[in-house]
Write a structure and sequence with these properties.
Elements lengths: L1 E8 L3 E2 L12 E7 L8 H9 L4 E6 L3 E3 L2 E3 L3 E7 L4 E8 L6 H12 L4 E8 L6 H10 L6 E6 L11 E3 L2 E3 L2 E8 L3 E8 L3 E13 L2 E5 L2 E2 H9 L15 E4 L8 E3 L1 E5 L4 E4 L8 E6 L2 H18 L8 E8 H7 L3 H10 L5 E8 L1 E5 L5 E4 L3 E8 L1
Parallel strand pairs: 3-4, 9-10, 23-24
Antiparallel strand pairs: 1-2, 1-7, 3-7, 4-11, 5-6, 5-24, 8-13, 9-13, 10-25, 11-12, 14-27, 15-16, 15-22, 16-17, 16-21, 18-19, 18-22, 20-21, 23-27, 25-26
Length: 381
């Protein structure tokens, strides 16, 4: 396996020209970029022309990751040619929450083969219910298949996201690549680092990913009480105060949900994933040191899943939440550095800041996460 990473910026163009000569049927090209590239896509067209036989996927971001650095309005690209691992791309359209489950199920049906080992998924970040997408992805594949990825972003604007595959750049779709063969080694890790505060409240009315009531009270009204002056900045300021969800007081598995939109008329809040009736919800707030430590722990867990046993290049795909970036501010690169520091020196890292992260909670089927640093490592033995 040979992997190399590139960047493109308006001021300096491509970081490497000519492009690495790695085009093949076993090559995967991953692209993360700012929202501007939906229309200003000449650099992406360069990649499509240079790698005509390769599988290509990518998405828009709230910031691009390249090595230990955070970039904006740029492209970060990884070109990886496998020696003994197969890769196949698939795409499904998704026009809203109601089609999210079917889109996930369609992708796994298109990609399923006996030797399927992993799926990397990139989805539109707004026209989708992430929980339903994940439920569809999990329907027809065994737990041994590792599914990771994330939801595209649009900075902190929440207006329009895009996803890229071989056919071009579009909104309202989910793209994925299946990776095949016994020589593939996949690591994954997802950690948060948020502090829980305030009382745990019962979800008393919700529909899918739209929350209407907590403890019988209007959800948005209750939420605004906690935000105080920050309530005027909704929905963006809600990224600083996500919800922790668990099924019951006996459940040790906690998932985090981020607000995507608010509805003043209905006093409701729309989240990146489902908020089921009967679940328990609790507010969370940020501690910068804990967030940075969470990124480090995600990398450590990733290595435990796929310890390095060869001299193969290692590609690390880092997907962190836009809410973490807003909290960390000028310290954002510290979490990127913390994750990369735990990986072997030969690891190459790209990634992006997202509206949701997809990864197994610990092992088994994948979950939708918010406000985590999620890492996926790919290598060959």
């Amino acid at each position: 396996m040979k992997s190399t990473t590139l960047t493109w910026s308006p001021s300096s163009g491509w970081s490497e020209m000519p492009f690495p000569d790695l085009d093949s049927e076993h090559t995967l090209v991953i692209v993360f970029g700012g929202a501007r590239f939906r229309t200003e896509n000449a650099p992406i067209q360069d990649l499509l022309r240079t790698y005509p036989r390769s599988q290509i996927l990518g998405c828009s971001t709230a910031g691009e990751i390249h090595g230990p650095a955070l970039l904006d309005d740029s492209l970060t690209v990884a070109v990886t040619r496998f020696d003994r691992v197969g890769c196949i791309a698939a795409m499904a359209n998704v026009s809203g929450a109601e089609g999210s489950f079917a889109a996930g199920q369609e992708l796994t049906q298109l990609l399923t083969r006996e030797d399927l080992r992993a799926i990397l998924v990139l989805s539109d970040g707004l026209n989708v219910n992430g929980s339903e997408l994940v439920r569809g992805l999990n329907t027809d594949i065994p737990q041994s298949v590792i599914v990771t990825g994330g939801l595209a972003a649009d900075g902190d604007r929440f207006q329009r996201t895009w996803v890229l595959d071989r056919s071009g750049i579009e909104s309202g779709r989910v793209c994925a690549v299946g990776l095949y063969g016994e020589h593939l080694r996949v690591g994954h890790g997802s950690r948060g680092g948020w502090d829980i505060f305030g009382p745990e409240r019962l979800v008393t009315r919700s529909v899918g990913n739209v929350l209407y009531e907590l403890d019988g009270q209007p959800a948005l009204e209750l939420y605004k009480r906690y935000l105080g002056e920050r309530a005027s900045g909704l929905p963006a300021t809600a990224l600083l105060f996500p919800l922790a969800l668990r099924a019951s007081r006996e459940d040790n598995k906690t998932l985090v949900r981020t607000v995507l939109a608010v509805d003043e008329a209905h006093q409701s809040m729309t989240f990146a994933g489902d908020v089921p009736v009967g679940h328990l919800a609790q507010l969370m707030s940020a501690n910068s040191e804990r967030l940075i430590d969470g990124a480090s722990r995600a990398a450590i867990h990733t290595l435990r899943q796929a310890p390095s046993t060869s001299d193969s290049d290692i590609l690390s795909i880092a997907i962190s939440c836009v809410g973490r970036r807003l909290v960390l501010g000028e310290r954002t690169e510290e979490e990127i550095e913390a994750a990369l520091r735990e990986l072997p020196d030969r690891a190459k890292q790209i990634g992006f800041y997202s509206y949701g992260e997809i990864s197994p909670y610990a092992s088994g089927h994948c979950d939708l996460h918010n406000q985590t640093m999620t890492l996926t490592t790919l290598s060959e033995d």
